Sequence to fold (559 residues):
Amino acid sequence: MKGKIRYFIIIVFLFFFLFPIVWIVLTSFKSPGEFLSHPPKWIPREPRLTHYFAVARLGGYHALKNTLIVSSLTTVIAVLLGTPCAYSLARFNTGGRNLAFWFLSHRMLPPITVAFPMFLLFRALGWIDTYQVLITVHLTFTLPYVIWMMRGFFRDIPLDIEESAQIDGCTPWQTFIHITLPLAAPGLVATAIFCFIFSWCELLFGLVLSRTEVVPLSVQLPRYFGQQMTFWGEIGALSTLSMLPIFALTLFAQKFLVRGLTLGAIK
Amino acid sequence: MGTRKKFRFTAWALVIPSFLLILVIVIFPLLYSLRLSFIHWDALVPGQRFVGLGNFLRAFQDQRFLFSFLHTGIFLLVAVSIEFALGLVIALALLEEFRTKKLVTALFILPVTVIPTVVGFMWKLIFDAQYGPLNHVLSILLRRNIQYTWLAQTTTAYLSLIVTDVWQWTPFMILVLLAGLVSLPHEVLEAAEIDGASEWQKIRFITFPMLLPVSAVAVILRSLEVLKLFDIIFAMTQGGPGTSTETLSYYIYRSGFEYFRMGYTASLSYIVLFIVSFLVMFLFNRLEKAAL
Fold:
């Protein structure tokens, strides 16, 4: 595609994709008089941080902390358990292709199909509204993801490199730590970032398995929306805070974005 | 022989922890749910009894379930088609080099990473009848005061949800199709150009067919996500007005967590699981071809 049409398309759609983000960020700096005005005020006259303080009283930072803890621990556990498993699948072909696909199939499982029995079981265990329940449940989609992605990254590393290291006297363990793992490190970092984002964005499990204490961001936000009045300023502030870390992380994983989002089907 | 055996042992030892964990946290609930699906158990009414396939038969007579199925199906067709078409157009526009390409591509990606609940609220605010910028802009363009309640009418509620989904997921299509376009062999396109093919002919007869495998993966992945559609419904319409925007996931959620129909909810889940497994089989087929 060439010429003016091309730039026209790019500019129009860039506006379409950025406008909602800009609007919610602007809303977080507006006074209630500005976002509750008709017609709406586009730019806040005096940008204010009041909503960023107000959201603290309404449990916003607590939810941010919860999500941060759940996403980080989920990612760490998924990577620690999944990477060795992926290595075994990639190098020793453990369980064949079927086992690899068995793991991956859990990534595709619609949360709603397990949410209900999980709720009943975890309620029986007394785990509702705890960190461990959210982390455990988030592992159902992050762990299969790590296993599948890392299997792909390990398979990309030529076998010759490992073999020559072993001829030079490395034990299999040394080969893995000093040769294979560093070579797979960029992929590992990207995979971890994706796990973090998936866990960060998750709503349904959080909704079902939390009550008042360990409430994640995605569940806290809708609570600011009420029949009588809506705390748009607070929603704006918390939304803005929820986007910043993810945007920063995405930049780091940009090179692997397509591969990460298509489960390695497109490299 | 001894070392080989030791290797096999190590190989399995690395797999077992993950295997057991998934077995316990996914397969166990699924089995429990399978048992529930054959039982009539309403938490609001005491007692439970075995009904065999009764719950499944009930599902096919349940208007709301059938409609939620229909809503999800229509949503899938419309939203994924728009996302694909827009994605392809924008990917083609982004294909050739220009000065700020890297930055622009990075900006296009942003919506994919926003929490879907947040996306729902962003658009709820934009569609807001009184305070939303959309009605404001329309008022200016049409020169009269417009206070249209987008999310309160069935048709426009649908439209709004589709716009929201398109907003979040078109960037995914752009990204994937752009990757596909970049990897196309240059020679074929150049040969076509020498032979005098027009821009449209090149797209229609060369680019499009060669992009098919990549497109298939993207469409299947998106379809799987739409079958799970829940978050933006929860944030924007709660299935309303009435039950007109209820999706499969949203209806099952209500059935379980608002009406507490234990057995019935479990059987609905299994129906969805069955549908999803079909798509997943297609996907795995594609992945196998890509990986080997």
Q: What stands out?
A: The first helix of chain A runs from residue 3 to 28.
